[in-house]
Amino acid sequence: MQLILEAIREAGSRLLSPDSDLLSATWRTLQVSGTATFISLLLGVPSGVALALYRFPGRIFIVALINTGMGLPPVVVGLFVMLLLWRSGPFGALELLYTPSAMVIAQTLIALPVVAGLSLAALQSLPARLRLQLQALGASTLQTAWLLSREARLPLLAALMAGFGAVISEVGASLMVGGNLRGSTRVLTTAVVLEASKGNFASGIALGLVLLVLAYAINDVLTRLQQRGRERKS
To answer: CA-CA 20 to 30 A from 63: which of 11, 15, 119, 135?
Structure first.
């Protein structure tokens, strides 16, 4: 109990007067996870919408892959990306390993199935007659997809939050492809692992609390947008 109280005091102290390491790790956490979430949103939502609206050969196989990817261990993603970016790998010439860009790639692969799978579920939860009504009114394919996405905007926001939560909390992939380099690829989760490995449990808990505050602040904004949209809809 004393250790937890000490960690809370240290977290409060570090929040009130953050040092350069904390600011750097926090900014890089936002930069890497935010970019990965944004890319997964750009790719995942259209993919989910297309899978929900169209039938084509191999669709069930793709949906099964996405559902499998939603539970894919981050460390497996990290290993796969590391092998691709290794010096002797197919993309080794790009020299992306142990850079924030490699972390963005890994985290995008983690978040993409989550966003795509939940977007698919969101569109499939809409009444089947709604699409037929839109088409009967003369809506084009793109207009139908846009209007259905607007109708499902609340669960799509939930997909966004789930994708963001999956990447901001992961540590395995970031360690494998980023290396936890101070001032370069260290994020809050990898900083927690480092402090715990050195036996600095109070500092590790403090960093964890900072991470929780950061995640809550972002999800609070998204939740307010979601619930405001729900009130308008009702």
So the answer is: 135
Closest by Cα among 96, 73, 71, 70 to 83:
96
| Lookup: tokens for 208 | 């964890």
The answer to whether 85 and 92 have CB atoms below 8 angstroms apart is: yes
Cβ-contact 121, 49 below 8 angstroms: no
Q: How far is CA 77 from CA 163, 209, 231, in A?
A: 15, 26, 39
Closest CA to 219 of 148, 171, 166, 170: 166
Q: Report the distance separating Cα 94 and Cα 97, nearest Å.
A: 8
Three-state DSSP class for residue 86: coil
- The DSSP symbol for 93 reads G
| Residue 121: CB atoms within 10 Å | 16
CB 123 within 8 A of CB 76: no
Model pLDDT for residues 171-184, shown as the tens digit of each residue: 999 999 999 998 89
229: tokens are: 């949209």
CATH number of 2-233: 1.10.3720.10
CA distances from 160 to 21, 102, 155, 222 (A): 28, 21, 9, 9
Q: Cite the DSSP H helix spans in 17-127.
A: 20-53, 59-69, 74-85, 100-124
The count of other CB atoms within 10 Å of the CB of residue 232 is 7
| Structure tokens given for 99 | 């850079």
Handedness of CA 193, 74, 95, 93 (dihedral sign): positive
pTM attached to this predicted model: 0.88
